[in-house]
Amino acid sequence: MKTFIWRWCCFLCLVSCTGDGEDGNIASPEVPDPPITNETSELKWQWVTSSDGSELIARHEAAFVAVGSKFFLLGGRGVRSVSIFDVDTAIWSEGSKPPIEIHHFQPVVYDDKIYIIGGMTGPFPNEVPLDKIYIYEPATDTWSVGDEIPEERRRGSTGNVLHNGKIYISCGIKNGHIGDHKTWLDRYDPLTGEWEILSDAPRSRDHFQAVLADDKIVLAGGRNTGKVPEDVFAATIPEVEVYDIASDTWTTLSNDIPTERAGTAALLFDEMIIIAGGESPVQDRAHDEVEALDLTTQQWKILPNLMEGRHGTGLVLYDDELYIASGSGNRGGSPELSSMEKYGE
Length: 345
What we know:
The protein is mainly β. It has one domain: Neuraminidase (6 Propeller), CATH 2.120.10. 3% of the residues lie in helices and 37% in strands. It contains one helix and 31 strands. A five-stranded mixed β-sheet has the order 3-28-27-26-25, with no helix packed on it. It has a four-stranded antiparallel β-sheet with strand order 4-31-30-29, with no helix packed on it. Strands 5-6-7-8 form a four-stranded antiparallel β-sheet, with no helix packed on it. The longest helix is centred in the first third of the chain and has 12 residues. The protein starts with a helix and ends with a strand.
């Protein structure tokens, strides 16, 4: 742990910034970008099939998350039953349906329950933010409605992480796929229901996932949906932001994400921030790129591509391997995929 903390200190000191005193933006020092490198490894992406021919329920703008030795694919456009993958048996089964349509959210596992906060409901392009927190309990396959979200802080497509028993909700968009992007950062205590407002991020973003790394929250990928009215997929965000939980401060890193895209899946893996898949205006197909910000060298690495490009889903880390499932295979909403793949031996 001491080694990892030291690495983060080195990581942030190279990109330490000062506010401009006007809008809170962070100015990075003039330092040369380190090279982008290809990761040489025996690990690769490979298809994962069930042992009995069972399949997941295809969906996108959904969540993929692990609780114990089971994976849960939940939410997405429409009202669809939870898909449950048992790692021990390699069998997919069907769980219960959510009480309403829930999409565009990053799930958080707390007390072995899956919390959905900062999501959306309703059809494109006028989706509205959820007004309450929804909770799925895997042990009983049941849904419940949690605390009400403060009306003035409601938005969807946020980046969420859990740290010391509290959920951090970053950025997002308030008006469906039309606009009203937010730089907000909030902290919610699921034990007490307390809601706190923290320091705004340097810039707004939506359609991304946040990552927790040693008391820091990393935001990479995403876009400002609707900022370019004629192209909802434009206005992707190249910059990477880091929030220090202890000091309630933000920094902007010197090195942008190599491939700008939104609808990405993100995770901490082997001391690297993994950004996989996504969609952008530069191609019709969903992105299959997998890029990693190495926290030791402060360089971006290029990892092997996904077997199939996809966006609107998540990454699961289990037994030192990465899994990704479902999502959309093209920019936009179709085709919805029924496949799963993993990055491992």
